[in-house]
Amino acid sequence: MNPYQSLRDYEEFVYTLPQQFPSIVSSTLIVIRRGRMVTVSGGIVFSQGYRLVVKERLTFDAGPLVLKRHGYEVWHGDEKVSWYDSQPHPHDPTLAATHPHHKHIPPDIKHHRVPAPELSFTHPNLLFLVQEIKQLLKG
Fold first, then answer.
1. What distance in Å separates the CA atoms of residue 134 and residue 50, rounded to the nearest whole number?
2. Is the pLDDT of residue 14 over 70?
3. CA 122 to each of CA 111, 119, 126: distance values in angstroms, whole numbers, following the listed order
4. Using CA atoms, how far apart are residues 126 and 14, in angstroms rounded to an integer?
5. Which of 31, 33, 71, 72: disulfide with 84, CB 3.0–4.6 Å?
6. For residues 109 and 76, what is the distance between their CA atoms, to the nearest angstrom?
7. How far apart (Å, rounded) are the C-alpha atoms in residues 26 and 51?
8. Contacts of 124 (CB under 8 A, 6+ apart)
9. CA-CA distance, 54 to 65, in Å (whole number)?
10. Is 80 exceeded by the pLDDT of residue 22?
11. In this predicted structure, what is the pLDDT of residue 1?
């Protein structure tokens, strides 16, 4: 099931992430509705000092939610491991395949970008991100 089918479904999905994934220690994610706009923000804390900072902006009418922009940061302690965003970089041909979704990785994390084919505006990205952090936990 795609939790983007309704705002209620997505809220339930977001607020029950800790129950779905034992590797999640806690979550401060909140879903805020303002008219047709929805903001999801906060963080998810994992074991071993990992955390995911989430910023999503979605819209909806009577139908499914649509993600308009996103930013996800993966931290290990005080070190930013990587981040994803939907800021367009139309002059970077290496990102064209997944435009505008991409991931920032070391070295030179601010400028070193790679395509992010797992991310989308039409399905929840949080599932992929939680799975990615679970892989980091395995070491």
1. 10
2. yes
3. 26, 9, 12
4. 8
5. 72
6. 14
7. 9
8. 2, 3, 4, 10, 13
9. 17
10. yes
11. 56
Size (the chain), residues: 139
* pTM score: 0.93
In 3-state terms, what secondary structure has residue 62? coil
Distance separating alpha carbons of residues 79 and 107, to the nearest angstrom = 13
Helical residues (DSSP H) of the chain, grouped into ranges: 7-15, 17-20, 126-138
What's the token pair of residue 61? 């009418």
d(CA 79, CA 89): 25
Res 4 pLDDT > 90: no
Residues 53 and 57: their CA atoms lie apart, in Å, by 14
Q: In sequence order, what are the residues at sequence separation of 6 or more whose Cβ sits closer than 8 angstroms to the Cβ of residue 62? A: none
SS3 content of the chain, % helix, strand, coil (to 5): 25, 40, 35
Rg (CA), the chain: 15
